[in-house]
Amino acid sequence: MGKEKKNKEGEQLKKKTKNLWGEFKAFITRGNILDMAVGVIIGGAFNAIVTALVNILMSVCTWGVPGGIKGLITVLPASNPAQEGIVGQKFSTGELTNKVIEFAKESGATIDAESNTFVQWKDSLLGLYELHGTTYVYKQSAFIDWGTFINAIISFLIIALTLFVIVKVSKYLAKRKAEYQAKLQEEYYQRHPEERPLPPAPQEKKPTTEELLTAILAEMKKEDSKK
User: Fold this and answer.
1) What is the DSSP secondary structure assignment for residue 109, as one 8-state letter?
2) pLDDT tens track for 121-170
3) Which of 83, 85, 208, 225 could form a disulfide with 78 if both were Cys (CB 3.0 to 4.6 A apart)?
4) 146 contacts 104 by C-beta, under 8 angstroms
């Protein structure tokens, strides 16, 4: 008796598992799911193309700016001592050696560019700053990254223009397809007029609410005149 019960429970479990697998399979093979997956993959690839194109355009347009598009920043004045930086809010790559020596001097060490500890001092200083183009900016400073903002605008315009063209072309192709199918159908009906469907019978015009009220009022007046 216990064995039969276990077998029955096992069969029910297999049946439930099979049903779940069937539902999952039907879900992942639905047309809209597959279309969405294809769209995500193509969108990712298209995003990489747009990013590369924007970088090329901005590199050409900002070739005269030190550091290119990444150098288009505005460092805001320090509002508190924490934003003033160790050796200033910002400095250029050409000032790096002098800033490292200054950083070491403020920490009580005397070094030069040939010192054995110069690299360690440089790494310590650069850990507090981040490079934007050819400018090192103190990490706690506030700044406006114009390059990223312009990059985002151009990317948006390129994507919007591409989608606009795709939609226009799709509508045009759909219109031409419908016209071509209508032309083929008309040619077929001309060769086989007996198969042309009859035009729909004209429907009787239903009276409007105003017409109904007018008719009711006329009937009421007619009844009153008889009395």
Assistant:
1) -
2) 999 999 999 998 889 999 999 999 988 888 888 888 888 888 888 889 98
3) 83
4) no
